[in-house]
Amino acid sequence: MSDGTPDYDGGREFERVARELRARMLDGRRYPHGSFLPPQRALAAEFGVSRDTVQRVLRELANEGWIEVRQGSGARVVRSPQVHSPTSSGTVTLRALIEDAFGQPEVTLDVFTLTSESLDAHIRMQAERIRAGEIAPQRIALRVMLPSESVELPYLRTGQPAQDERLKARFLSITRRHTESLRTVLSDLRATGLVPSVDLRIRRIRVAPQSKVYLLNGTEALVGLYTVCRRSIMMEDGEVIEGVLDVQGLGAGLTHHVKDAELHSQGTVLVTNMQKWFDSPWELLTE
């Protein structure tokens, strides 16, 4: 199916390829930041799909800001996790931290983010591990705090009203798609009995996030500042909008903090305060 013939793979194959490529970029080992994805023909052969499917996947990943596609140069990864950690090696992948958290009998995960895009990819990876019998959490409690759809973001703008409206519609579409995906995958885990207790709550807050925050099992915090940049964005119809004021989260790096037995250690104080910070707007400011 990799000979350039029309696409008959359907939505399921498209989602499978897109999910796997996101996972590889999130892992940061196979496709690190700044590296190039294999050529379209090679990807089509590897996944057993048509080149049309690969092209649609690459267009979607470019729309989401994972890659930049340049004619004649290929697809370059522009988003990938760089986690700075107090571990002995000094570095750790975001995927490894999520995997460790989901390896516990009870998983609690609080997330404040601009979209649920990368979170969706991580949860789907853990769901695959659960289905494969690699892990067996008994309870998953996930709270996601996202900006209200009515918030006027200072980014995703060009200064041209018509283009800005299209960019906002694209942003809302990405957020809605990934939050619905989260609901679906976690509901399936509960419905099939693979995870006896699943609690997913998504709330909106009238704030434009300046950083991304993950709180894992009450003992770890990941914080990443959104870096403002200008870049090109490809729209769903294939049009490229140049000079879009946007933010990058994963590309700017994440800082890992760990709560330990020392009451006044830097890690303990930061994780404790970050949890208090998350709880306060969650209870008082969200919709």
C-alpha Rg, in Å?
Answer: 19 Å
Q: What oligomeric state is this?
A: single chain
Low-confidence stretches: 1-9
Average pLDDT, all residues? 87
Give the tally of β-strands.
12
Q: Topology as H/E string?
A: HHHEEEEHEHEHEEEEEEH
Largest sheet: 8 strands, mixed
How much β-strand is present in the residues? 15-25%
The first-to-last residue Cα distance is 47 Å
Task: Provide structural commentary.
- The structure is a single chain.
- The chain has 287 residues and is α/β, with parallel strands linked by helices.
- It folds into 2 domains: 68 residues, Winged helix-like DNA-binding domain superfamily/Winged helix DNA-binding domain (Arc Repressor Mutant, subunit A, Orthogonal Bundle); 202 residues, no CATH class.
- It is 39% helix and 25% strand.
- It has 7 helices and 12 strands.
- The strands form 3 sheets. Strands 4-3-12-9-8-5-6-7 form an 8-stranded mixed beta sheet, with helices on both faces. A two-stranded antiparallel ribbon has the order 1-2. A two-stranded antiparallel ribbon has the order 10-11.
- Strand 1 and strand 2 form a beta hairpin.
- Helix 1 packs across helix 3, helix 2 crosses helix 3 and helix 5 packs parallel to helix 6.
- It holds the Pfam family GntR.
- Keywords: DNA-binding, Transcription, Transcription regulation.
- This is GntR family transcriptional regulator.
